[in-house]
UniProtKB/TrEMBL annotation:
Its EC number is 2.4.1.-. Residues 51-64 have a biased composition (Polar residues). It is a single-pass type II membrane protein; Single-pass membrane protein. Pfam families: Glyco_tran_10_N, Glyco_transf_10. It is found in: Golgi apparatus, Golgi stack membrane; Membrane. Belongs to the glycosyltransferase 10 family. Signal peptide: none annotated. Keywords: Glycoprotein, Glycosyltransferase, Golgi apparatus, Membrane, Signal-anchor, Transferase, Transmembrane, Transmembrane helix. The chain crosses the membrane at residues 9-27. It comes from Clavelina lepadiformis. This is Fucosyltransferase. Residues 236-405 form the Fucosyltransferase C-terminal domain.
Length: 454
């Protein structure tokens, strides 16, 4: 039986964790982050013109080499962080075990009018009741109010506000959907919110569409118990090459770009089975059957409706492609944003190719080469703890932990060293978290590809 960790040992762990994370995440400081995205914008220049594939052989070799090395790089990149979290896990369990108070989290308005059931596991998240009951706003146990961006109105928020309540701003939509489609400037919310809760990794509360670890756990828990056997069986049932399911045909600039992109790929000789609301005359793909349909294809176009919007990676990748059992060809976020959250060597990046003909040639090569194709699926045989964000509490679970003074999930944040190092891993900061400019936080670090003007 292991001896309990002493308080002195915990202090050492916390110091080591903070020091390591400062070094580990320093390359993604605000200055470097801004320079990186400016460079990406200057060099990407997508959509690229369709040109002669005179360098296709060299690019094919480069892409294959990159695919072989990415797996090992992905494994080692997470090791130190996981060791740090293991060192803190006993203290986390101790705090959760000793929780005596239950807190209320109110979702002020149901997102797009749709209510969902939210039950949090106390052993992982702490004791929190999540409801839509506005009558609880005056309850002393109510410690957080979550405001979904679409229903948010300043004049409909509580008339009085307690200083011990966190106001949380929540959005799962990308910046173009807010700024271009809805005209939201967000400047009226300066110093209103304490926490952000979005798909972005630098959110105060990380609310992804899913995580690679959760996806893999779901895949393996529903399998036979032999991941290698399941993988072979999955590949054996594939009888078609590429599928794309889409319903947003051009509401944003990014949606228009991807429509043209797919047509250009078809013109370059790639057979693409197009389904969904944008192609009503083609075969239907009913929601309840989408994953089963996708599983019969080798590749899925996980193309976002925005381009180079920070961390905007949606269910198109995590659900349709990964859970559907196809290799995703991705277009939307920067490659570095994808690599931070996807399994190693699991995606084919459109931005990697100098022209679309080279991409078409590579997909056709993989279609004919079973061994090379399988390399993109081997992550399904790995362990969940080898996946990005394994052990990271997210969404309302993370929010509940924050209310109970558990802030270790901050360690995953790419801006930990500059944004959260003053907040104790256990306990409450003497200075409350405040989003001084929601507009600058959500729109400010974006490339011109994502949002030209904000």
């Amino acid at each position: 039986m292991e001896k309990p960790v002493t308080s002195k040992t915990l202090v050492v762990f916390i110091i080591l964790a903070t020091t390591f994370l400062y070094i580990y995440h320093n390359y993604r400081s605000t200055e470097n982050f801004t320079k990186f995205h400016k460079k990406q914008h200057a060099t990407s220049g997508w959509p690229k013109k369709l040109t002669s594939p005179n360098n296709s052989k060299n690019q094919l070799n480069d892409t294959r080499t990159s695919a072989r090395t990415e797996l090992e790089q992905g494994k080692s990149a997470k090791l130190d962080l996981m060791q740090t979290l293991v060192g803190l896990s006993q203290k986390v369990h101790e705090v959760l075990f000793n929780v005596t108070e239950q807190y209320n989290i109110i979702i002020w308005e149901p997102p797009f009018g749709a209510k969902s059931t939210n039950h949090l596991d106390q052993s992982k998240c702490g004791a929190c009741d999540v409801s839509y009951d506005k009558a609880k706003v005056k309850d002393l146990a109510t410690k957080a109010i979550v405001y979904h961006f679409n229903e948010l109105r300043l004049n409909k928020m509580p008339q009085t506000r307690r200083s011990d309540q966190y106001y949380v701003w929540w959005s799962m939509e990308g910046p173009p959907a807010l700024r271009e489609l809805r005209g939201m400037k967000l400047s009226e919310y300066d110093n209103v919110f304490n926490l952000t809760m979005t798909y972005r990794q630098d959110s105060d509360i990380y609310n992804p569409y899913s995580t690679a670890a959760d996806v893999l756990q779901n895949i393996q828990s529903s399998g036979s118990g032999d991941p290698n056997k399941d993988l072979d069986q999955l590949i054996s049932k594939k009888n078609a090459m590429v599928i794309w399911i889409v319903s947003n045909c051009g509401a944003t600039k990014g949606a228009q770009t991807r429509m043209k992109l797919v047509q250009d790929l078809i013109n370059a000789g790639l057979p693409v089975d197009r389904r969904g609301g944008c192609f009503p005359k083609n075969k239907p793909a009913p929601r309840g059957q989408q994953l089963e349909i996708i599983s019969e294809f080798k590749f899925y176009f996980a193309f976002e409706n925005s381009y180079h919007c920070l961390d905007y990676v949606t269910e198109k990748l995590f659900v349709n492609a990964f859970k559907g059992g196809a290799v995703p060809v991705v277009f939307g976020a920067n490659k570095s944003d994808y690599q931070a959250v996807v399994p190693p060597n699991s995606c084919i990046y459109v931005d990697d190719f100098t022209n679309l003909q080279n991409l078409v040639n590579y997909l056709k090569y993989l279609d004919k080469n079973a061994t090379a194709y399988k390399e993109y699926m081997k992550w399904r045989t790995m362990k969940p703890e080898e996946m990005p964000n394994y052990g990271r509490s997210t969404k309302l679970c993370q929010l509940c932990r924050v209310l109970h003074g558990i802030n270790v999930d901050n360690l995953f944040n790419p801006f930990y060293s500059e944004k959260y190092s003053s907040i104790p891993l256990f306990g409450h900061s003497s200075t409350p978290r405040v989003v001084t400019s929601l507009r600058e936080w959500f729109y400010g670090p974006l490339s011109k590809d994502c949002l030209a003007n904000y």
